[in-house]
Amino acid sequence: MQVHLISALNGNFLVNVSMDYFSQVLVYSKIQYTLHQVCHSDYVTQEWINYLANSPGSYGEFYDAFRVSGTFLFQALSTLCVLVDQTISNRLIEFYSTQYVSASVTPSNIFQLQTKAFISQFISSTTSEFLLSFAMIRKTTQSNALLSGQFTNYRFYVDKNDDLYTRSLRHGDCICSSLATCINQYAVINYPSYTKIFLIPGLYTGCYIIESLLQSNLQCFYDQICIDTILLYLGSTTLINATALDTSLSIQFLANSTIADVLDQLMVEEWNSSSIYENYYSECQPSRCSYTVTSKNSVIYIVTTLIGLVGGLITVMKLMVPMLVKVARKRIYKEVKTGTEYYPNVLVFYQQSYGNCSCYSSATCSSASPIYDLVKGTLLFTVPGLYTGCYIIKSLLQSNLQCFYDQTCINKLQSYFVVSSVMNVTALDKSLSTHFLQNSTIGDVLNQLMVEEWNSSSIYENYYSECQPSRCSYTVATKNSVIYIVTTLIGLVGGLITVLKFVVPYLITLIRGKKKFQRVETVMSTNERAQTLRQKPKHFFLNLNLFPSLPPTTNEYQLRNQRISTRLFIALLIMSLAILLLYTSLINITQTVNVKAPSIQEYTQLYNSYSQALTCECTQISINYEKFIQIQYTLHEVCYSDYVTQEWIDYLATSYGNSVPNSEDFRVTSTFIFQAMSAFCTLVNQTISNSLTQFYSSQYVSASVTPSNVFQLQTKAFISQFISSTRNEFLLSLVMIRNITQSNALFSGILTNYNSESANGVFVREPVWYGNCVCSSSATCITQSAIYDLVKGTLLFTVPGLYTGCYTIESLLQSNLQCFYNQTCINKLQSYFQASSVMNVTALDVSLSIQFLANSTVTDILDQLMVEEWNSSSIYENYYSECQPSRCSYTVTSKNDAIYIVTTLIGLVGGLITVLKLMVPYVIEFIMFSIKTCKGKPARIMPLVQA
């Protein structure tokens, strides 16, 4: 059947039209992966990172590139391993919950091709999305000229006026201000003599740790001698077991493959995927398969149809032929004709202000971009449309390109450049702009993805060509064909005429005989009357003759044969009709019942009665989720409080007046803490909103109406998947930014991760310790947030639940908001502020919390996307209304109805009677002749032979 009927086979009655790629019971598409062996090695462990961070000379003024920044290199490598693994894991969860939709069973060969394409697409999209997010962070970091805490891209200097300035570093012929990818080979100098230098093969240092790591390779760490040399030169008193990587375990990566090359493959050595067709088929659960074949009518159908037609045709012909003959005879002598008939077939130390805006409280402060005299410092020119501010990216977004549409402005700019030769640059052409204006800000342009015009087209012919339909089918409501009507009528007419011809004469005779009997009726006793009534039927049946000869015969032998023929005829007719009656009455038939445009109430009733056989085809097979799913959410109350407003942040920025507190003082860190909190609220809300927009535009595909119970389970799963995937994507992005920030050792402008001291006009840095934790090896070092005396520096108050640490974000994540649920604590805090007026802020209300506690850390809150409560609903009625089933059909097994049985028997009676009337007399005559012949044969006399 698979070979010959594959184009006709259609398993289109499915229990599951759509199913997940992954099921708790059955897995029919499974993906496994093996990361680069470095991700499972000693070189990404905290033990190795701490070993490098604590090696002698790593915190002093001695600049041994590897000794100083090697710890960050391996933190970065560890980060990449973790991020890649988490990214793939999150994407797999989404992939496994994706619906595979097939209205009919997909053949095995097509299924294997499809799943192979799905898996290839999954790997490609996961890789692209990860690398895009990673590149965005790298480019933003370079564009904002963020300072590395290792002073590998910029260094601080103090001029003769004690003003602080920075100067970009060079690595060879490359300068970090113009390119983030400048590198030098890593070197380690032996300790404690500092006499020998060992250049580490394959490892590089540069402007940013991440950028230099990407250009490095791990060839040294495949060589035990190279590793031992590094350990020897570091001269640490602590012993560590560092084993070389094994080249034999590498499948696609080489020892000299750069980290960029490895990352381009998501650090995956090998993907192992499988798709199990049997599991797919089991989940699909086809209720039945149908196929079409070209065949002849069955013998039974042919025989019964012919019998019905023969009787009808003979009867009709017997009526019509005599009349036609008479007409022909009347005209035969009038006209004789002869004829022939044919039959055709950002980051800073001190508070910077732009106008009335302080970078301390807002990152969006900006002012017009100027050009100053390099000697006198006087303003020479203000660049139209361009702004400078706290961060380069932020100010760029507020800028526009109007100067660069004006050649005069460009020439004016270049006239202030101190260069050996002027570069020939041409102004932008405003006539080429179709969507953006000259004064459109970069923010506005970026909101449109910098796209002037989208041009799209969809070619139906190409789709149809790829689709290659093997056949099309459709259903139409029609009347019976003329041939069917004619043949049925002929059969019925013949049967009716035959039956009536047989019955009517006897009825007339019976009626007339009764009337005659009434006229000549004599007085009879009851016994005589009863005996007469018994004798009459007997006499009737004994003398019944349906085959009289013409003219009537008196020959007893012939009369006897005729009566026997009559009795055999009646017996065969009754037996045939009885068999046909039993067959048509007892045979099971499958009937398809169609209900046009059923209401939801009618559908529910039908489903309750015929759930296994009911099929209701949707007019609209794909429906947006927004039509029947609604998701609402309530964020943590802090997101609606005073503590995330700009007014509160500005208030905190003025809390210590003109004094300079300890960098760990709450009054210094608080403004950044609440900026971060506000950012979390905004980002979470925007993330959920964006995800909801995508979710609502997702298509729910169902070729037929999905039952209410299945629909509720599916929508519940969709909503759960939406929440899970949104949370995972947000947290993964946050982890990526946090880890890359630490890996690049970015300098905190409030000196919470590095202290900087001036030595002979040059600044050197030293990582900050919090207890036994140092910021060079871990970003999560923290200490309790406190308020100190601005003069003596003594501890005045410890803020409950709040911490300060290497980075504001890291310390905030480990903090909780218990102080801000307590009005006394808030008032106590404000009592130490040197603001001109006290801001009226109200404590958070613990009674409004549904799932979070007062001492829940910000990490715990963020793990739930800061959502107190999700409210979701799925409305089945809306789905049904969008589906708009044009009809529902179901099959039932039943017997033939009485009308069908009667009409069938009538149609067959005529044919049976005709056939039997033709055959029975000849059969009886042959039998009687044979018997007579046997009886009348003379006996032969054989003589006895005596011995």
Automatic annotation (TrEMBL):
- Tell me the organism's taxonomic lineage: Eukaryota, Metazoa, Spiralia, Gnathifera, Rotifera
Transmembrane intervals: 299-321, 483-508, 568-586, 898-920
Organism, as annotated: Adineta steineri
Superkingdom, natural source:
Eukaryota
> Which keywords accompany this UniProt record?
Membrane, Transmembrane, Transmembrane helix
- Name of protein: Uncharacterized protein
